[in-house]
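Write out the 3D structure for:
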Amino acid sequence: MSINLKSLIPVLNAQWTGSDADIFVDHISIDSRSLQNGPETLFIALSGVNNDAHLYIVELIEKGVQNFVVQYIPENCAGKANFLIVENTLKALQEFAAYYRNLFHFPIIGLTGSNGKTIVKEWLNFLLSPDYNIIRSPKSYNSQVGVPLSVIAINEKHNLGIFEAGISTVNEMIKLEKIVKPTIGVLTNIGSAHDEGFENLQQKINEKLLLFKESAVIIYQKNPLVEECLTSFSAQYSLNERNLFSWSFSDESADVFILKKENKSDSTSIKYQYKDEVFNLEIPFSDSASIENAISCLLVLLYFKYDSETIQNRVQNLYPVQMRLEVKNGINNCSIIDDSYSSDFQSLKIALDFLESQQKKNASKTIILSDIFQSGFSNEELYSKVAQLISDNKINRVIVIGATISSFAAKFSNCIAFQNTAEFIAQIESLNFENETILIKGARSFQFEEIVSLLEEKTHETILEINLNSISHNLNYYKSKLAHNVKLMVMVKAFGYGNGGLEIAKLLEHHKVDYLGVAFADEGISLKNGGIKLPIMVLNPESTSFPSIIQYNLEPEIYSIKGLKAFLKIAREKNLKDFPIHIKLDTGMHRLGFEENTLDELIQTLKGNSTVKIKSVLSHLATSDELQHYDFVISQINLFDKLSSKLISELNINPIRHILNTSGISNFPDAQYNMVRLGIGLYGVSNDPAEQKYLENVGTLKSIISQVRIIPAGDSVGYGRRFMADRETKIATIPIGYADGISRLWGNQVGFVTIKNQKANILGSVCMDMLMVDVSHIDCKEGDSVIIFGESPTVIEMAAALKTIPYEIMTSISQRVKRVFFR
């Protein structure tokens, strides 16, 4: 892409100010942290409820960025760069993408639906790539921001596009349609995702169909509600050439009618009728979602007039889609970023940005990269661009694998080349991977999962998956509740509520929260050693930890005269000046804090003291989640206001004040003061069922089936023979137990796990390292995945059954359980 800046002024209806409009830009950016920003970047400063990219323009100018689309010119920036001033920068991004899309005239497949969009997109890319040079949405870029960024990646070598579009409410799809302008529309499964944004299912379908208002064909699964919506849609947006191309399991009038479906253990055979002929198709999956997605792909291939033999040969090679980047612990203190299933230029840029945000643990960065496919560039141009990209991202070591990329190894600095994966694996020991962050990025055909397996730290097969996107979503949900200029402290104590402290702290630093909170000094020291620069408050500091707190620039909460005097003594010995401390007031929790009758002594001790500075004054609500105690909370807030105001007046200070926790943010918005403290809500748990539906699940505890056996009626299971079979029963053993954090009270048919989307009750006692479940009704085998908690059961369900709270469930998960972080 090379666009003249002057040509964009009328496109964006922008006001121009700058030194030179007659220059060209070849990169669009919305992320100030990206190392790919440079002199030829056009930075679009998006401004939303929770973040304003205008705040980073000064920093970007210092880094060499010269061209900006803005809603206003920040102070001290006038005359220092070129600015296109618009009313709304998100609208400008979308308008630019729509303008850019209209420069190209080749078929575009547009995908929308509730489920399956990304999988169908990736499978279509695989099925059609032998015959087309395809541009597609990277990962799941289907939002109001993701769609324009996807379309902007088109270049003149592409001859087919596949883009997905997702919406969460009305009036969103009409904007995306102008950007994608699909000539071929595919409607995937319509389910319950984002139901809260629509009045009913019919309204949701009508909105999604707007993506296809200029499409020549719409491919869909036939059912009465969709048919009804399509009838009214076609009447409103009639095109002479429009073709409705349908499939169905039950309606013989569909263009493709599935006559027979036979499920096997790992595959499905279907017999379908098309144009009065009958064909067979083997699909290498047995779950219903994959079968529906494969049939959507089948109809696209039929529309493209592929013969049945070619369709069968390609469909039988479909594979599970890896839709996320995963962060894993590696050997020799390495961190692994696993993106081992795709290799294209756009997703490489995304992965490198992710690497930059996740590599604080290790200063050294390595990339293992395969041949790159479907770039739209010549090999010379492609690998020149890739080399520049890797150089811009300051990668210390480059390992390339593949005949094509190896022939361009000279373009990369500090590069080692291998012809194939086997050659690399044969020499892996000599490469000495140690204390580095390794991005593994390869096309599926290179089987880089073998490399991941070799470099990954070996632990047992129970893992806790942490969805970083969900953490970002939950963070932004609570940010949206805050008044302007209210700061945000996020609690990462107790190993991030069991989810992993350092990795979550990195993400929070990426989101520029104001403070992190930990319980003890060693937690803060671990974060500082991991490269975290954010200020960290230690809520329960022991006096013996004060020297370490000072050494690592942590900020202690002070809650007693004894503790204050002990800290002041050390501070004076070290000749400190204005070292930040936080004063805790007890307003009724009666756990820690200065009570009203100790306030005068506190004031006298601090008056005239220059060794410390009161950074904040805080208290803690005892019942913010229990509205039957509303009056007690109000009394706490009033007392906090009184005591903190006295401190501020007597000491002539201007500290941050904060009293609200997660439930307080939602239930007592008038008491936000200067800062709030977000805890359990970040991790997807609310004490309010009405609020819970707006949060996303963060942690999913997974294991596998170790063994399956059948026991006769009368046999028992586990210690103490607590379960006696009253019938022949199929039992699966799962390698997780109370040493991993699963309460013994969850056993003996109180609790359950989920296998293949079905409940499997726990039988007998939970053992130290294992538990047994009833799988008599489930077609499963050894090695199959097991959900211990996540979407079902949720930690809220578990806590209710065990008469405890979700905090205890989450923080009980043992450190021996490997955490895997993904986007």
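DSSP finds 27 helices and 41 strands in the chain.
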